Amino acid sequence: MNEAYLLDRITVNPEVMVGKPTIRGLRITVEQILKALGGGVTSEDLLEDYPDLEAADIQAVLLYAAKLVEGERVYRVAAG
After folding, report:
1. Contact assessment for residue 75 and residue 15, using Cβ atoms and an 8 Å cutoff
2. What does the alpha-carbon distance between residue 35 and residue 32 come to, in Å, rounded to a whole number?
3. Is the dihedral of CA 5, 27, 19, 73 positive or negative?
4. DSSP conformation class of 76
5. 66 Cβ partners below 8 Å, 6+ apart?
6. What secondary structure does DSSP assign to 2-61, as a single string?
7. 3-69: in CATH 1.10.10.10
8. Sequence ranges of the domains in the chain
9. Sorting pLDDT into bands at 50, 70 and 90, what band is 13?
10. Cβ 34 vs Cβ 61: under 8 Å
11. What pTM value is reported for the model?
């Protein structure tokens, strides 16, 4: 799957979940999936817990998060 296909699965609509990024317009947010994964929930468990969720959606969430942080830079300030 290419990046464009995956990123198209992430949608933003002010009418759905107060405009937070969601998966395919469903009431499942990128944030929910990231927090679950970060908390140790497996992809398999997520797919069971959310019947509308697809494996490609989880890939899309991870890619979306990576794209958000790829431009971040941390600069050290010289002690002085």
Report:
1. no
2. 5
3. negative
4. P
5. none
6. -HHHHHTTEE--TTSGGG--EETTSS-BHHHHHHHHHTT--HHHHHHH-TT--HHHHHHH
7. yes
8. 3-69
9. very high
10. yes
11. 0.86
